[in-house]
Amino acid sequence: MNRTREAARRAGQTDNERETVRQINRERNAATRAAQTNDQQFASQALDRERHASMRASQSEGERTASQALDRERHASMRSSQTEEERLASQANSREQHATRRAALTEQEVEARREHDRIRRKSIKRCHGHVNHENFRVSVVTGENVVNGRHRLPPTIVCPLCQAWKWPDESDFVCCMKGRVKLHPLQPAPGRLLELYGENEFRRHVRAYNQAFAFTSIGASSSDNTFRAVDQDQDVAGQHGVYSYRIQGAMGHYLGSMLPYVDPATGERTAPKFAQIYIVDPDMQTRAQRRKGIYADLDNVALKDIEDMMERCNPFSQQFLNFGEKLREDLANGVDVMDIQYRLHAKPPQPGTHNLPTVSEVGAALIDDGNIAKPRDLLLLARDHRLLRLFETDEKYDPLQYPLLFPHGDLGWTHTLTYADGAVYRNKRKMALREHTAYRLFQKVGDQSALHQGGRLFQQWVVDQRAKCEQEQLRWVATHQKEIRANQYHGVEDALLNENTITLDEGEGILSEYDRTRGELVHPDRQHREDHFLRQIGKRVILPDSHVGGPRFKYKAYQDSMAIVREYGKPDVFVTTTCNPKWEEIEENITDPLQSAQDRPDIVARVWQQKLKALLKDLDEGVLGRLLARIYVVEFQKRGLPHAHILIILEDEDKPRTREIIDKLVSTELPDKNVNPDLFDTVMTCMMHGPCGEAFPSSPCMKDGKCSKGFPKPLVEVTRANPDGYPVYRRRRREPGVLTYKGKTYDNETVNQWVVPYNPYLSQKYDCHINVEVCTAITAIKYMYKYVYKGSDRAVITIEAVRDPTNPRDEPNEILRFLNARYISPVEACMRLLAFEIQGKTHSIIRLTVHLEGGQMIVFEPTDDPAVVAERDCRTTVTSFFELCASEEAEDQIAKTMLYHEIPKQLSWDNKAKKWVRRSKYQAAIGRLIHVSPRDIERFYLRVLLCHRRGPTSFKDLQTVDGVVHPTFQKAAMYAGFLENDQEWVACMSEASSFKMPIALRQLFATLLVYSQVSDVHALWDQFYGELSRGFAFTYRNLEGQTKEDTIQFHTLMHLKDLLQISGYAVHHFELPQLCEHRELVLTSLLENNLIRRELEGYNHDVLHGVHDRTDELNDGQRAIYDQIMDAVERPQIGKKLFFVDGPGGTGKSTLLRHILASVRLSGKIAIAVSSSGIAALLLMGGRTAHSTFKIPLKLNEHSTCSIYKQSKLRKLLQAASFIIWDEAPMTHRHAFEAVDRSLRDILDNDQEPFGGKTFVLSGDFRKSSLL
């Protein structure tokens, strides 16, 4: 009764009266709390909690939801009314209260709280974890925002700070940076334009209509720095697929000259386009006809209506019309057309404002001298066959390109915009482009603009905005390379670029070896490799790991995730979830009946983000079992929908090891439609694979006539384990008959063969594709994590590099490589613009440096004072660890009992103070030592000692063993017992095998064999053979028995052979299984290459024997050359493999070459014969022209290379060849030889010897070279 009377009284109050009462209550409550003691406060709070619990218990579900919504709105209003100082004071007061409360708790109360949390998490897990299609009911699905067994977002609310429609769980930072971003609202769109947006035909061609009226052209840069148009990728979407606008490359808007281009040779003028139409045609009717000529499919009436609207509403249209009038006047007065320049204004009349351009503010000015230093306004030339690039910082960037989204010419972002009311966020006052765009993405109350009506044009705009943001970030990266290289990548931390290098000086990275006799590092290639590519390190353009989505970002995320695996073990569950465009929240918030989910990527991204957060919360709370660790990565499908990969590690007692638990966790059978119709609908709609198979050969999953996903799956009565893969889940046969669902028919008896594994609880609750797989038995866990962090799909991308003829070797530019290797879809653009996370982990990974004493990096300019530089604080995580262990403070004593990588579990690294500090609050953290190559000897053994020694106090202490200070870390590790019986190499391989892919592990193994003294190679091989051969074991998993084992071992040895060959070694130099044990596989491998098969089987052996049998007929001179070359073929030695056979015509050169070719080919080796001309090639058995064989370019220069790719069959042929002859060599230009030499060095990974170390014979009459 009292509550009802109080509610009626509040309903009769005005907003001001209600706020006054609240303020009085707040002040009275504050005074009461200030007068209370701590015990009284605790007692009062306990009473409040009991009262609130009782009140909540008496509420219905609807009342509780409404109450929560009111509370959120009231709290948001309260926060918005606070000043910045009041907000900070409130936060400080809350922290102080919580600290006081925690300090007053006894040990028993703390433990009771922890136990309460554990019981709560366990009860949630027990409630939801083990449900399947047999015992599942909708009533099981509980939790926040659940309605009738489905997860539903609460109703949208209005942000009190910016009047944007948003969901309650969305942060105030997302839409307006908590009031810091304030922009003028977009002007309402003209009524006729809104009518056009309501027509299907106009919406289908909206991009063409926009482009017809745009003032600028839009495109992306290609690999040769040329401009190209951007359009729908039909290879991805298909002719009838869901439309999704994507770009690849650097986005750009381009403004041409005011007059069409005139060909100086013919005098022919091109048709006017873009802004030129306004200049050339003053008549509106004529302009509409010109646009019709460019885009023939457009409607005449619509074109005229838009033309009229542009002339009336768009200031840029009026300005260009003024340009045309002024231009005609200037030409009539005899001004040379080449001297006419105009300036396009968009500067607001008052500094600090962001006003819209009006008719009175636009005009034209004739620039006489043209001497304007970087004008902000656009400078337009009357006639010039050039395109002017509009940069992202130009506020006219958007209105010039999107007149149908901004018909009134609303200006966009520029770098001078600042936060409202002088606000500051993270020490900056300027508004970022991303923050500006995020503000526009949120629809405001009463918004009547055209922006969100654009459909496909809106897709293009959001992709363009994301491209602008990314290019702004990359531009900063490109201009701050010195700081980036110095701060993060001076050297080869984590061996990302090349494991076999260490960096000595800025710009110098060379291969190094450890001389055991001298006890120091030596650099054998310093004098022999002046042009070594790694010397370009100081010039390379680096994309740092802070750039989300870049290769270093993904590599770092992968390494961090593998650190979690090393700490907690392999993942147990692999979850993949995909956005459902039919979610009710998406459909309800797209109010236009003509729009669909792909037309509003902003709504799709926001709903997806909240659904994903709810799913992750469920997983963290134990829906599939009590969780130890988790990682997730969001990816974006080419058709526009996002999906997430989630890997979960469960506590030991909850791991799905038995058939019963797996069946409860994962189902691959249709649920009972009568018992749970909603789950049945979800499975039929979202969890059915196909259609594919022989009847659907064009299905995306079909490869070589079979489904790449293995569907249809076999029907089995019980779940079976798979020794290295997902389990074979239970799929029982159903009743015979036909199952019809939404017009599709299935064989009811075998329909379970097509069900994708799912968890009933998650599928029921979230109504989308959620594939749940048990992955406990998968041993190739690194492949799973690599798959998760693979990044965007690059299969449709082709990159063609055009070398600069003035630059002998293009400097590696990771920024351009990144731009050319990624595409942006609309949903991804919105997620990134709204600053949503695209990957996450339950644990914070702390990267721990490993450097020698005095080897930490110090940043300084050449002009800095050395004394000042020397005094800078250069403490690192390792030196601060030593200080912590040496400290006598009581709170630091724990460090003396810990290893280096264990420190982050107890302490956090304060990067500003450069020291380890106690955590203010608990955070799950894992330490990860950066990887060090074994070739960096001292750092490698320093790392070994840091992994085994507890509580070291200094570098010297690490070198001290049993009271003796050893001169090197290697000797200290040896005397400490870490090097006995190859222990350091076993430890090295063990650690590397926990995160390196098999190919990288084989590279490390080869490095150890060549550069380290491994005493028992065979034992090391046996111990790690499983990891070394893991990739091939997966590739040949369908083979059986001894054939499978032989094939896996053979391919592992073959790859090891290639790696050892680079350093001049072979498999037979070590105590390893030999390739000769697999003769049939060696021959089969070679014959798989048709080029190699042609060389091995394409010659008539009778003819070869006939030539070889006449070898005795060679004269003494020919015989001496024959013996010397054959010896080089049989026993190649460095420096003795390049020959010149010189002699005038008729001296027997061709005869000699035929005998050598026959002998080499009869011995089972490959000999390649080429000549400079086709006629000369016919004289050699199997001869071909050099241009054809080596793919020599027709146009040569001193920097040319051959078109031979490392993965090509030709490369494998050249690698397998033992001997190469080039006849009539003097008839070829030197640039051809240099191109072949350069290419062979590259593809054979041997740049120390001519022609990549092949036995090479150049033959001909060198006396003819003077004639050339």
Uncertain segments are: 124-129, 221-241, 274-284, 337-343, 345-387, 485-540, 792-811
Strand content is 5-15%
* Count of strand segments: 36
| Class from secondary-structure proportions | alpha+beta
- Helix segment tally: 47
Largest sheet: 5 strands, antiparallel
Q: What is the terminal separation in angstroms?
A: 112 Å
Helical coverage, percent range: 40-55%
Strand order in the sheet with the most strands = 23-16-18-17-25
Radius of gyration: 36 Å
State mean pLDDT (0 to 100 scale): 75
Choose one word for the global shape: globular
Domain Helitron helicase-like: 436-648
Region (Disordered): 1-117
Pfam family, one: PIF1
Cofactor: Mg(2+)
